[in-house]
Design a protein that fits this description.
eight-stranded antiparallel beta barrel, alpha+beta, globular, 22% helix, 9 strands
């Protein structure tokens, strides 16, 4: 009986350690991150899709949700709530974002996008490999351009973030 009790206790402690480990892994992801550089490789072409010069992007992770918002530098103030078509284009071009739930296990982050300023992303789940060293996070993986209706072949996205909170 004592051996059975010891075995059950050990299994309970081990499963508790696993829970703590997963919690710590999520804690490293949780918080606010500022995008510093993002590149997209499609075939032989490499594109810098974000360099921080004309835009700023912040990504926030809670224990279950993520959200990101990108804001451009060309944001004039408008004199009326009734915007012209041209003003709407400027506003849309200078602000965007997405949010949804995420899962994170074994350094694989899967973003389940529920809402986005760009409708092609809604309902799509995108997995990324995550590497966090100190206050730097690298998010990278296949970018589903075909599924998103944005290209004839998928790309490879690599984004580098710095923790800000």
């Amino acid at each position: 009986m004592r051996v059975l009790f010891t075995l059950v206790l050990a299994l309970g402690l081990l499963s508790g350690c696993q829970t703590v480990s997963n919690s710590r892994q999520a804690d490293t992801l949780e918080g606010e991150w500022q995008l510093e550089l993002e590149t997209l490789v499609i075939g032989d072409q490499k594109y810098t899709t974000f360099d921080g010069k004309s835009r700023e992007m912040i990504k926030i992770f809670t224990d279950s949700h993520f959200a990101f918002s990108s804001i451009g530098n060309n944001r004039p103030r408008f004199s009326s709530f009734q915007l012209t078509k041209e003003q709407k284009v400027v506003a849309f071009d200078n602000f965007g974002g997405s949010l949804g739930r995420y899962s994170y296990e074994d350094n694989i982050l899967t973003e389940h996008i529920e809402y986005s300023s760009f409708p092609n992303y809604e309902g799509v789940s995108i997995p990324f490999k995550i590497t966090i060293i100190g206050d730097t996070m690298v998010q990278e993986g296949t970018y589903p351009l075909i599924e998103l209706g944005l290209g004839e072949q998928d790309g490879y996205l690599r984004a580098t973030f710095k923790r800000i909170k």
